[in-house]
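Project standup — Tuesday

K.O.: blocked on the structure for the chain from last sprint. Re-posting the sequence here as requested.
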Amino acid sequence: MFSTNHFIWLGLCAIFITGLLLAAIRFKFSFKLATYIVSGICIASELCKIFTHIDEIYDMEGNLDGGVLGAQYLPFHLCSILIFFILYLNVCKNEERLEKIKSFIVPIALLGGAMAMLIPTSGVNFLKPYAYQCFVYHAGIFWYGLYLIITKQVSLGLKSYKNNMLYLLGLLFIMIWVNSALQVYDTNFFYLVRPPMDNLPILNLNNGWFVYFISLVLIALTLFTALHLPFMILERRKTKKGEANS
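H.V.: unblocked you, prediction finished:
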């Protein structure tokens, strides 16, 4: 899985993320500017994905009858869904809704972005545009998640943890139905049908689909909990300190 090209991509992503993060800190990017930047990355990524995966279709007589994007490339993967949330941040005026969206984006951006870069389902060929689309997009949302945390513009305490778990599980079961409805197109959104790659440890079909599904859900919940845990502990300590001082 970790080929030479893959390591090069990971190194380039690390440079991209670090450089953009240092620039955001050095020049004090506002939330609006940072959101514009990641929105631009999202739009460019989606356009690249669309126009590199359009398939020509033909009628019964063999004549060209148009072009269509394969259903498996629709933005229904967990990281792809963030595009809609991020774009909405640019126009959202409701502060409470804004906080909920940001707190949901961060764990998906960090965990999903990291996993996508470590398991590059679009390949690592430098001659293929969708490899650039995959790595740049996931590096971009990973940076945005870090930016929101470092600039303290997001809350990941107990309330956010409960909400995010509810949203994640809700999306998970919705995608079971979506994959079922689109099974003729061989979709695999949220990787609920099969693993993202062959021969992965734990995430494989060696012991059947139900074991794979349970393993996938448990890993997701464990990673979510691990990411929120330091913030929940800090929140609890602040609460206790406030109670002691009152």
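K.O.: great, moving the ticket to review. The mean pLDDT is 93. Strands lie at 54-58, 64-69.
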